Amino acid sequence: MRCPNDLKLQSFGDGELSNWQARIVERHLQHCQDCRQKVADLHQLRNFLRGAYPEVDLALAKTQPALPFLRYKLAVAAVIVVVVMTVSTYWQQFNRSIPSGPDAEMIEEYLTIYYEAGS
């Protein structure tokens, strides 16, 4: 199995991965000493920084979990854009198929005469 990149390992250490992604990394860590060492080094660095700069850690705790929430917002925005574009495309097609102006009046008159003659 290929090793996860450093960003994925850092996200794993920060608890930012989804459950299934975290399970994949955990399974990989069982077999890869190099990646286990990287994760351990990241934990050690994080603990050192928390001890050296506790006020920064407190500020970061208040702003977490921005990344997972941001992913959700981006997904919702993408779905909305796709829906709006689809609706506008169909709306334009629908409006083109309905005649307006003098042609519409002539068609309406023809249909009125046709249905009156049929009944």
Write the layout of secondary structure elements.
Elements: H1 6-14, H2 19-31, H3 33-52, H4 54-63, H5 66-97, H6 102-118
Helix pairs in contact: 1-3, 2-3, 3-4
In brief:
The chain has 6 helices and no strands. With 119 residues, it is an all-alpha fold.
Task: Describe the protein in words.
The structure is a single chain. This protein has six helices and no strands. With 119 residues, it is mostly helical. The chain has two domains: 1-64, no CATH class; 66-119, no CATH class. The protein is rod-shaped, with a radius of gyration of 30 Å. It starts with 5 loop residues before the first helix and ends with a helix. The mean pLDDT is 77.
In one word, what is the shape? rod-shaped
* Low-confidence spans: none
Going by helix content, strand content and strand pairing, the class is mainly alpha
H and E string: HHHHHH
Range of helix content:
over 70%
Oligomer: single chain
Helix count, DSSP H or I runs of 4 or more residues: 6
Largest sheet: none
Q: What's the number of structural domains?
A: 2
End-to-end CA span: 76 Å
Strand content: under 5%
Q: How many beta-strand runs?
A: 0
Radius of gyration: 30 Å
| Chain-averaged pLDDT | 77
Quickly list its features.
single chain, 119 residues, mainly alpha, 2 domains, Anti_sigma_zinc_sf, Anti-sigma-W factor RsiW
